[in-house]
Design goal:
The protein contains five helices and eight strands; from the N terminus they run E-E-H-H-H-E-E-E-H-E-H-E-E. With 176 residues, it is α+β, with helices and mostly antiparallel strands. The protein has an eight-stranded mixed sheet, with helices on both faces.
């Protein structure tokens, strides 16, 4: 697979997505261990639909997260809902395989994405949403500098329980 080093960190880089990776994304997006945290476990993702999504969104600030040491695809991230006039946007990311989680790859990818948003897209406020049970993600986002700004209480129902949707953001002036 051929990737391009658009945004480079110490251990990962962000590359434009490849349609050839659609099969890997489909595997991840049909895995409850991943989709429960994304809020998309009710969806069924087919290979054809994912190929179309990648083709349509590959130029829309959506990136593959690639491990630098071996050019291995480990996740996906992106900036969406960009409101240029208000200089606001939303980000999201996930790391696919459990073996690549809790290693700092997500925080590094998010740092690259946030810097890109502030430095190249002229954003001032970048927000994300996460579910209250996802403490690992919340800790990652705090490490990057995101702060909780509110909650939508009991807004996510999963496996017989309600969870809060946690809203977090970071301002340009809060970057190190």
């Amino acid at each position: 697979m051929r990737y391009f080093k658009k945004l480079v960190g110490n251990r990962v880089y962000l590359s434009p997505m490849n349609v050839e990776d659609a099969e890997t994304y489909v595997k991840w997006l049909n895995d409850f261990n991943i989709t429960d945290g994304l809020g998309s476990s009710n969806r069924i993702t087919s290979l054809e639909n994912e190929k179309e999504w990648v083709k349509h969104n590959s130029g829309q600030y959506q990136f593959a997260i690639i491990r630098l040491e071996d050019d291995q695809l480990i996740g996906n991230c992106g900036i969406q809902d960009i409101q240029q006039l208000r200089q606001c946007a939303e980000v999201g990311l996930f790391i696919g395989e459990e073996e690549n989680r809790n290693k700092g790859y997500g925080a590094e990818a998010l740092n690259l994405l946030v810097d890109y948003g502030f430095d190249y897209l002229n954003l001032n406020n970048i927000m994300l949403k996460v579910f209250s049970f996802n403490e690992r993600a919340i800790n990652c986002y705090k490490k990057v500098g995101f702060k909780e700004i509110g909650r939508r209480r009991q807004a996510y129902y999963l496996k017989g329980r309600f969870y809060d949707e946690v809203y977090m953001d970071i301002l340009r002036e809060e970057r190190n």
